[in-house]
Write a structure and sequence with these properties.
mainly beta; single chain; Chitinase A, domain 3; 6 strands; globular
Length: 98
């Protein structure tokens, strides 16, 4: 495994990346949803609050910052969401919310 490791650069702490707990808000309804973005290899597949970075819900938010809007298309449905909080680490000490 060590022979296949590669160094990846992480995004700034104020951008959505793997390991972030992200809260998004539907711009039409105001409904909020919070989820942890991670790797499908380590996430709890039974926990709806843990989402793979490759999933259609998470992928569009990678690199987004608080206040930014992104359009999500799942099937034939398109919904606009705004990032309202990004948290990293235990206790969300580096939380950024708007």
């Amino acid at each position: 495994m060590k022979n296949h490791a590669r160094i990846v650069e992480s995004r700034a702490a104020d951008e959505v990346d793997v390991g972030a707990r992200v809260t998004i808000e539907d711009t039409a309804t105001g409904e909020r949803r919070t989820f942890l973005i991670g790797s499908y290899q380590v996430l709890d597949q039974e926990d709806e609050h843990e989402v793979s970075y490759a999933a259609p819900l998470a992928r569009p938010f990678l690199g987004a910052v608080v206040g930014e809007e992104r359009e999500i298309e799942i099937g034939e449905t398109s919904t606009s969401y705004r990032v309202v909080a990004i948290e990293y680490g235990v206790g969300a000490a580096s939380s950024r919310a708007k």
